[in-house]
Design goal:
Two copies of one chain form a homodimer.
Chain A (H helix, E strand, L loop, with lengths): L2 H8 L7 E7 L2 E7 L2 E5 L4 E7 L3 H9 L1 E6 L5 H6 L6 E2 L2 E2 L2 E5 L5 E3 L4 E11 L4 E13 L8 H4 L6
Antiparallel strand pairs in A: 1-2, 1-5, 3-4, 4-11, 5-10, 6-7, 7-8, 8-9, 10-11
Amino acid sequence: MDAEAKKKVLRMINYGLYVLSAKQDAQVAAATVNWLSQASFNPPLVMVGLKKDSQTYQVVLKSMHFTVNVLGKEQKNIAQDFFKPSTVEGSKINGHAFAPSGSGGAVLDEAPSWFECKVTDIIDRGDHAVVVAEVIEAKVIRDEPPMFMRDTGWFYGG
Amino acid sequence: MDAEAKKKVLRMINYGLYVLSAKQDAQVAAATVNWLSQASFNPPLVMVGLKKDSQTYQVVLKSMHFTVNVLGKEQKNIAQDFFKPSTVEGSKINGHAFAPSGSGGAVLDEAPSWFECKVTDIIDRGDHAVVVAEVIEAKVIRDEPPMFMRDTGWFYGG
């Protein structure tokens, strides 16, 4: 296989951008992710690729729950702030106001919509784990077109 | 959980559109899919949600290989043609010229790029299976911006 072709074709896959968060006791972690897709209507499942050596994945492994904040078209700055390790100060995580969701992680005040999931299966084969989870809660705060990763000029894939 | 909110928020996830194909002996099947994402850099894995009662999934289960044709921005007509069951006539599948890839399925002549995968894991939990597969071949025929599902006005999710 031609490594350049592999990189190029895998970068043709289109993504949105999301801040995925989990909490366990006092620990809250959150990270920007793009490898996320629905995976079943009934039950409503999603699948997400999580970096195995990330803080967020370690917390997901403990709590087996997570929250996905869907980012709006103009929220590139939020995506950028969650490339960094998670730091909670008062009611802010990485500088953004949040509230904890039920058993998931941080719900960002600025997120136009979010959903919470309960992990059902994990495939631990590559440098990212495939985490399959059932959607157990969902909220739409306001109608806002979601972000396309391609519009940001960033790539995570290849 | 509010079913309307769940539907709305899951439809905020952004996707591309792809024709996924598999073959086993003389049988070639292909279907339009959007629940597809990379899932690891090393090894290069993808994850895809395949409808369990579809012909294409049945062939994937037998061959444990598939090919993903990445559709370009202007190829909505091709996506539409693979919503239908697969019909092969001569060197055409659903009216589109193709060649078989190594151990995968149909490579469409019109596809700007494609990659071939070997299945490594399957999670059979919902109405779609989560199929995880390693990318073993990749070709870029021409540079062409990929299709956004959102631009088509179609949704498959919610």
